Amino acid sequence: MNPDLLFLFTDRIGVFVFAISGGIVAVRKEMDLFGVIVMAFLPAIGGGTLRDLILSQPVFWLEDTQTLGFAIAGGLAAFFFHRWLENFRPLRWADAIGMALFAVTGAAKAAALGHGWPVVLIMGTMTASAGGLLRDVVANEKPLLLLKSEIYATAALLGSLVYFLTSLWLGDEFLAFILGLVSAFVLRALGIIFKLSLPRSPF
Amino acid sequence: MNPDLLFLFTDRIGVFVFAISGGIVAVRKEMDLFGVIVMAFLPAIGGGTLRDLILSQPVFWLEDTQTLGFAIAGGLAAFFFHRWLENFRPLRWADAIGMALFAVTGAAKAAALGHGWPVVLIMGTMTASAGGLLRDVVANEKPLLLLKSEIYATAALLGSLVYFLTSLWLGDEFLAFILGLVSAFVLRALGIIFKLSLPRSPF
Amino acid sequence: MNPDLLFLFTDRIGVFVFAISGGIVAVRKEMDLFGVIVMAFLPAIGGGTLRDLILSQPVFWLEDTQTLGFAIAGGLAAFFFHRWLENFRPLRWADAIGMALFAVTGAAKAAALGHGWPVVLIMGTMTASAGGLLRDVVANEKPLLLLKSEIYATAALLGSLVYFLTSLWLGDEFLAFILGLVSAFVLRALGIIFKLSLPRSPF
């Protein structure tokens, strides 16, 4: 499997799994089939859409319409199999891979446009996590991303940082991509396994 | 009445009626006059604004500022006459006309830019329904569009599809516009009359 | 202190104080540190971001990344000192200055692009107040901007109008800027002191 194909494959898994997360929220909220599909789109393509709008770039799924198919497939999977999927443990690991990939992709897109580290880190984190935030806001739920005692966006931030520094210091784009991806995934995995969390204000 | 004038007239009615829907939610939520105007803008111009941002097009109301006047008028109508308007049955038919027109307009704009059917269908549906979703999200209410057991976005989707196929097969833009408009309106009308709804997840 | 430096100084205060308002909401909602930073960004840069997207302009903080630092500082201040800041009366006056400045800056940006008064007034009001609205929507709270019986967005609207008219009639951009700023601030100050409010629908 060459790198491009591996990248495409991972991206499709990420979109599909993110879409499932939206579809499950929709089913829980007793939305109809249309609501399930809309709620599947939000986490699957919301973060990347916001990234492209802010960077003044063409929105990625206008060209890559296959992505939309995978998002719809994730929504349908949630519609039909949500009971089974909610308790399917491997899903959170697939979600972690998707998060790590989206973070590095977002960071790389910002860096390729010549932006400095503040914008690169924000875009990486936003691509990985803003879609999930949109999902909760539209579902009129408490925003999990901001509340839950889990390491999620922080892992996306770390992945973006590792990508940026490796790319800057070693000049090897491919290596930077891999290292960023792995570090985001590993921090997220540690967070899941050891139930790590960010502090709340103790004051 | 020539076609262009008819189109403009229908569009103004759509904006005005959509704005009333936002204003009524605002009055129910005990918002002040400013809140009523903001909430009138969201359904009236929110869907088209989102469409233009995603398509990288100039936002339509920057040029067509008359639209803003009709949106404000709808908000003021809700502010002063909401009791009467809430029970005014013809409003939902005017809303159905607006929805049908916005769907076909959105689909046509995407098609004119050379996009394929997935983007055309999304843009048609989004133009007609995303503003109402925004209204509910900002009002901190359950999103009616995704929950209510009514055929609404589905009608917009059908109208976009009929427009796209007619335009593709017959090559007659005007006919495609009319057929798309009529099919969206008829499906919505059937949904209202026979209380049709999309299924929820039965699992 | 020359005008440019004074402008920059006021802008930084505005961003910092707006960010504090977001951070305080986040701490109240028991969000973690990441949530506090995100919620600080929303009011601090949300209004200007929306303005730039709608005007098809490069989003301001992609170049002016220093702004992001002030937003983060505001979030951290709320994280550590929220108890003290919530009761710190001068904050609302700093907020009023920020609001006035953001309104005139937004109006000036729209006017410089050649837009007429409807767009200029909307952009001024939006730059000053949409970020606070975003903050409340994401926090899943009732939107203060639309509900609270205070003169806030109305002051931003007045400032934008005074700026526009002065610039049009006298042709002096600097004077227009100052008069707009002062009138927005004074109306907001009168609103605070005399507890002025906009009417709700009495019907």
UniProtKB/TrEMBL annotation, chains A, B, C:
Membrane topology according to the record: Multi-pass membrane protein
Major place of residence: membrane
Residue ranges crossing the lipid bilayer per the database entry: 6-26, 33-54, 60-81, 93-113, 151-170, 176-198
Keyword Transport: no
Location within or outside the cell: Cell membrane
GO terms under cellular component: plasma membrane
Residues spanning the signal sequence: none
Protein family (similarity comment): Belongs to the UPF0126 family.
Protein name: Trimeric intracellular cation channel family protein
